[in-house]
Design goal:
Length: about 350
């Protein structure tokens, strides 16, 4: 099991700080909680981005890839966290944002030719957010710049990179990126976050036909697009299957239909032996799974047990073990609703999930 940490909201944060900004979570405080995480049964941790950014507690609005956000710590603290994780036999994964940066970045200001434009020559922005310009990573210099920054993380000892919004950059870029990362760090895993509808891409013909015939769901088709390109992807298709089950009022334990659906889903990747699916139930962009379970802790336990039985890694978002969850759907349209699943960790709550209560049942 891998433990997913939103740095600012995990250890060292202060929920009394008002507003949507930084709450004080930091890298040094994570080190102090590594034994806690290990006791949950975690064999590794996944961090949200820690590079310097512009007023973004979550870390995804980067202004300088070479510097650590001082709210979180320093490169010295990064190195210590990696070292302490490794001492405990834990892997550690960094979140890497290659698709876009914040417009206050010196790169945007000094190298506008490194960024995408529409047919009229206007900049394009990630998710139409007008302060997040998208890199044109087919530009030779931009491609080298971003690959060097990926190598920087590897040189600090990270075992894997989670590639944020992997569908944004071209396949040609990821092939270049992989080639250069693997040349120096063959053991480092490259894990794509593949979600959402395509912006300007089409599926290869074979996958497109499989999707249109109903052999593959859209999520499965897009995930399979990266087999042979990356080492694995975050399995949004799996997560959707379990969410649909509990929304339909089904149990997880003894659910033959769900079990068959999941096995069928995995079978689509059986001819991709070097491609890993990373299972999860919730993250910082989704409803907490306990919300989908309508607060039924026993149902949550079933889902966790179900997810940890497979041959694939399972990622658990911080606070799930404490029963933290949102009371309203974060897709309700209210501004900043994602804050409801990014609350400060409350270590005073009892654990509803422990290593003792998580076991295989199938």
């Amino acid at each position: 099991m891998l433990y997913h940490i939103l740095i600012d909201r995990f250890a060292g944060c202060n929920p009394a700080i008002k507003g949507r900004g930084y709450k004080g979570g930091n890298l040094e405080a994570i080190i102090d909680r590594l034994d806690y995480i290990r006791q949950l049964g975690a064999t590794g941790i996944l961090l949200t981005p820690f590079m310097k950014g512009w007023r973004a507690y979550h870390g995804y609005h980067i202004t300088d890839y070479a510097k650590v956000n001082p709210h979180f710590g320093s490169w010295k603290m990064v190195d210590r966290l990696v070292d302490e994780a490794h001492k405990r036999g834990m892997t550690i994964i960094a979140d890497f944002v290659a698709n876009h940066c914040h417009k206050r970045s010196h790169v945007w200001q000094q190298h506008p030719e490194w960024f995408k434009t529409d047919p009229k020559g206007n900049p394009t922005y990630f998710n139409n957010i007008d302060y997040l310009p998208e890199f044109d990573l087919d530009h030779p210099e931009a491609r080298r710049f971003m690959t060097d920054n990926g190598l920087l993380l590897c040189r600090h000892g990270f075992d894997a990179l989670r590639l944020d919004y992997a569908k944004g950059p071209s396949i040609a870029f990821w092939q270049y990126f992989r080639k250069n990362i693997k040349r120096e760090f063959p053991q480092v895993e490259l894990i794509g976050e593949v979600w959402g509808k395509p912006l300007d891409k089409e599926l290869p013909t074979k996958l497109d036909r499989a999707f249109r015939r109903g052999v593959l769901t859209e999520k499965e088709a897009w995930q399979k697009r990266y087999a042979g390109i990356l080492d694995g992807v975050m399995d949004f298709a799996y997560q959707e299957l379990l969410v649909q089950a509990v929304r339909s009022g089904e149990r997880i334990l003894g659910n033959k239909k769900l079990y068959e659906q999941v096995e069928k889903h995995f079978s689509h990747f059986s001819k991709c032996p070097a491609f890993c699916l990373y299972l999860f139930l919730e993250n910082h962009d989704t409803n907490r799974f306990l919300f989908e379970c309508k607060g039924d802790v026993s149902l949550l336990r079933e889902a966790v047990n179900f997810s940890r039985q497979w041959q694939y890694p399972y990622i658990q978002y911080y606070g799930m073990e404490k029963g933290m969850y949102n009371k309203k759907d974060i897709r309700c349209g209210e501004p900043y609703a994602d804050e409801w699943v990014r609350q400060c960790m409350n270590f005073d709550l009892p654990n509803i999930l422990t290593n003792d209560t998580v076991h295989n049942f199938v």
